[in-house]
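Final report, Chapter 2: Outcomes

The project's central promise was a pipeline that accepts a single protein chain and returns its three-dimensional structure in a standardized token representation, suitable for archiving and comparison. That pipeline is now operational. To close this chapter, we reproduce one record exactly as it appears in the project archive, with the input sequence first and the structure output second.
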Amino acid sequence: MRLVFLGTPEPAVPSLEALVAAGHDVVCVVTRPDRRRGRGGELSPSPVKVAAMAHGIPVAHHVRDLEGVDAQWGVVVAYGAMIPAPVLERIPMLNVHFSLLPRWRGAAPVERAILAGDTETGVGIMSLEETLDTGPVHAEVRLPIGEKTASELTTLLAHRGAELLVSVLSSPERLQHARAQKGVATYAEKLSSETFHLTPTMSSDEALRVVRLERAWCHIAGKRLRVLSAHTGEGGDDAAPGSLVSFGPHVGLAAADGVLWLDRVQSEGGRPMEAAAWLAGARLASDATWS
């Protein structure tokens, strides 16, 4: 099948690779422009661009560059921008979306599912419409979330989505008979720095879900501390929220209903380390607090 592909970050790469491996003719890849990264500020291509170039596929950086391109279908995976209606009218497009629609329409479905404490999520193939993630669904796969981190869950969904995409494209029945979304729609708003801010008003379970997003942080003694991994468990239940709890070499953050025990952390300007090693060198006051 003659296709165009629109995508940008690493989770979109498995779908592109699967299309090529399945023998589809990907005639053009559209991805977001190269970005400056690192201290040197050098321009770096998106992961999708790197993959496309490895296969010798022409790359464009704007949807308008699809004008005049002859394709039967388009495939969109985390492209990062809305597709204009005139383009959708000319090239029907499938979207690989990392949620069980209509739950978690929008930009951050994986992270919002984790934060909400959902027990399962999934990946679906839907027809793209001009409105946000409202199109009919051709197929979906449901997966348990468990204790996975955001990156672990995203990687799993990306690969299952790639398999499902190829399956849908090979099935005229699935392509022609999508079902309308049913249920209550929820929206996965974009993430901000505050999304990852641990606070004493959170329950320990809520705080742990933030840690599983892999960008959690808090302030201790006026300095920002990144929490790379943590766990909940017994001990310190009578500690006041906002206080630090120590048990031998272990340190925890007293939350609203228990303690978030720190496993690995990273202080400002420091390297990742075990929480016990950080505590030994932090020289905190006995009444130090976190916020």
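Archive annotation: The chain has two domains: 2-188, 193-282.
This record, like all others produced under the grant, will remain available to the consortium after the project formally closes.
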